[in-house]
Design brief:
The chain has 216 residues and is α/β, with parallel strands linked by helices. 31% of the residues lie in helices and 27% in strands. A 6-stranded mixed β-sheet has the order 6-7-8-3-9-10, with helices on both faces. Strands 2-1-4-5 form a 4-stranded antiparallel β-sheet, covered by helices on one side.
């Protein structure tokens, strides 16, 4: 459980002199801020800025704070922010258990036992030695989520993580993901075009339009 808040303080991003977005927002522990908008409105750009890999063609001002600390200038690997993408992005050369072990901090004691517990938590007991490619889409998504949680992030960025799932799996994964993030007390930023994603996430919703923002 974390008491961190993720804050966007007067974040302003331009591209070739044109304002792409402006955002002021505070995401509390266990809360989700959903950012919606049409293609080109700046959703992915905001996520890239928060993660620490904004392309040099963009000009950004304002601050990103995590737990009250300004992390704007920190490299991505030092921000303590985890990412969950559209695709699970499991390592094909590692087993399911190997993927989960990869998420654990280096100093974690008894990693094997922690991995077994993690597999049980996502309903995949006995799947540790399986090739990730043999798992269903929903199972791969659960492994990706657990790998993220095992890495002990202080905040999470969600890049349309349900868009490649069918309707039933999408509903199941939304319940699992948002439930686990609330349980862990992690402030999260969700980028999506899906209204149901935003509804299930709860919390704040920001609609991006070209050159500005408006709260729903």
């Amino acid at each position: 459980m974390t008491d961190d808040c993720l804050e966007f303080d007067k974040v302003h991003i331009t591209l070739h002199g044109r304002t792409l977005l402006h955002l002021d927002a505070r995401i509390g522990p266990g809360e989700v801020l959903t950012v919606k908008g049409p293609s080109g409105s700046g959703k992915s750009t905001l996520l890239a800025f928060a993660a620490g890999f904004l392309a040099s063609s963009f000009v950004a001002s304002g601050r990103i704070l995590l737990g009250g600390k300004d992390i704007t200038a920190l490299p991505a690997e030092q921000r303590g922010i985890g990412l969950l993408f559209q695709d699970p992005l499991l390592f094909p050369h590692l087993s399911v258990a190997g993927n989960l072990r990869f998420g654990l901090p280096r100093a974690t004691p008894d990693k094997a036992a922690r991995v077994e517990t993690a597999l049980a938590e996502i309903g995949l007991t006995g799947f540790g030695e399986r090739d990730p490619a043999t798992l269903s889409g929903g199972q791969q998504s659960r492994v990706a989520l657990m790998r993220l949680l095992l890495s002990a992030p202080r905040a999470v960025l969600l890049d349309e993580p349900f868009s490649n799932l069918d309707t039933h799996l999408r509903q199941e994964m939304r319940r699992l993901v948002f439930g686990r993030l609330r349980e862990a007390g992690l402030p999260s930023l969700l980028v999506t075009h899906d209204t149901e994603d935003a509804d299930d996430a709860g919390g704040q919703v920001v609609e991006l339009s070209h050159g500005g923002t408006s709260r729903a």
